[in-house]
Amino acid sequence: MSEIVLLSNVRLSFPHLIEPQRNTNEQTGQVRISYNAEFIMEPGSSGFKAFMTRYTEMAAAKWNEHATQVMQMVQQDRKLRCFGEGKEKINKKTFEIYNGYENMVYITSGRDSQPQIIQDDGSPIDPANAMAYQQITRKMYAGCRVNAAIKPWLQDNKHGRGVRCELIALQFAGDGTAFGAGEIDASAMFGNAKQAPAATAAAPDMGLPPFMQS
User: Fold this and answer.
1) d(Cα 27, Cα 31) in Å, to the nearest integer?
2) pLDDT at residue 184 above 50?
């Protein structure tokens, strides 16, 4: 089975594609950059099934008889995996599930350099052509649909065991409802603005301060 998994016609969320996301290690002060995004899809989608199949095969090959136990630990800790159920994506301010995630699953994928961007005709953008890269990438807003090539990999180091995902390539697949609160319409609070004649008001008698009184 190929190491690359293709996610077809999935929704894009939290994209950091032109400018990378920067995370600072509180202990070392080291800054890590990441070009990343999340992809939202239905649990029964072919892309998610292919991803989980590939992950299971890799875990079995790497951790052998301990694979089931390790995968259970990974499943119990969201920080150790790059995938999950949409109901896990809770807005910390509103405590509600993020728009578009309910009853869905997601995969988070990233890398430390810009991913390959594929044009409508299937040809890749020349990485040296920054203008063309940005022009197409700006079309990929949160909520649109994309095709994405991702590559799962297993973490096994001093930071623990887990499953991660490298973002290989992206292609714009179509428009969708953009995520976000949108503009607030306050027009119903106002009536017609009619110019009223200015009223001349008498100046209030404030009296003199004590030091000016005779």
Assistant:
1) 11
2) no
pLDDT value at residue 1: 52
Q: What is the CATH number of the domain that holds 163?
A: 2.40.50.140
Threshold 0.85, pTM exceeds: no
Q: Residue 23: how many CB atoms within 10 A of its CB?
A: 11
- CB of 161 within 8 A of CB of 154? yes
Instruction: Please give the angle made by the CA atoms of 103, 150 and 30, to the nearest 5 degrees.
Output: 100
Pair 133, 140: CB distance under 8 Å: no
- The continuous run of DSSP H or E covering 164 comes out as strand 160-174
15, 114 in Cβ contact below 8 A? no
Is 197 part of any domain?
no
Please tell me the total count of domains within the chain. 1
Is residue 148 within 8 A of residue 140, CB to CB? The reply is: no
Residue 130 — left, alpha, or beta (φ > 0 → left; ψ -120 to 50 → alpha)?
A: alpha
pLDDT tens across 73-99, in order? 999 999 999 999 999 999 999 999 999
Residue type, 173: A
Look at residue 177 and tell me if it is in a domain.
yes
